[in-house]
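sanity check this fold:
=====
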Amino acid sequence: MSARDDILGALRRSHGRGVLDRDAQSGIEERMGRHPRGPQLARVALDAGALVDLFAAKVTAAAATLDRVATVDAIPAAIAGYLARENLPAQLAVAPDPQLDDVPWRNRPLLVLRRGVARETDTASVTGAFAAIAETGTLMLTSGPQSPTTLNFLPESHIVVLRRGQVVGALEDAWDRLRGRQGHAMPRTVNFITGPSRSADIGQQLQMGAHGPRRLHIILVDGRAAAGG
């Protein structure tokens, strides 16, 4: 028996349940494998263009910012412009993510890039995302060697490069996409991010950056050539 088995067994006994036999375990696995979906709102039964528009509206309502660009070639200029508007250094911690390999950083040679995990001295990070949920304006990010979670939370400014084809309607759509790609080999961590970090626990005053970045900026590559996702 492992410590996990001991804990789960104690929980079952506290609820008056017996030992989990093979038939019960099979039933649980079968039920979980169905991935039933709850009621779907009509507002996400939209075509791809309308979903992107809905996502953009929800993002700005959640106090994040968003730039739409037509092609990947425009990403460096959009990021440089954002850093200048926020009076931030032109230094970026960039995820070693293949999604970012086609970004022509050379177009903005004054940007200073370092690829890898975040450090305490980093002021801004750039990551990709696995998916974006239009219903709530939420980003879905998965952890792994190519997408260090520290980049999502340690720097005060988090910049996310998102492709049009990554925008889905509802949370269930994002999970379906992840299961379809990962199967049972799920990532260690799945982070859902809606707007910058905030808290109203301190004197009931809204504080930005309470537990993570105080700024969330999304570069949405919205051209048809980016629809692959």
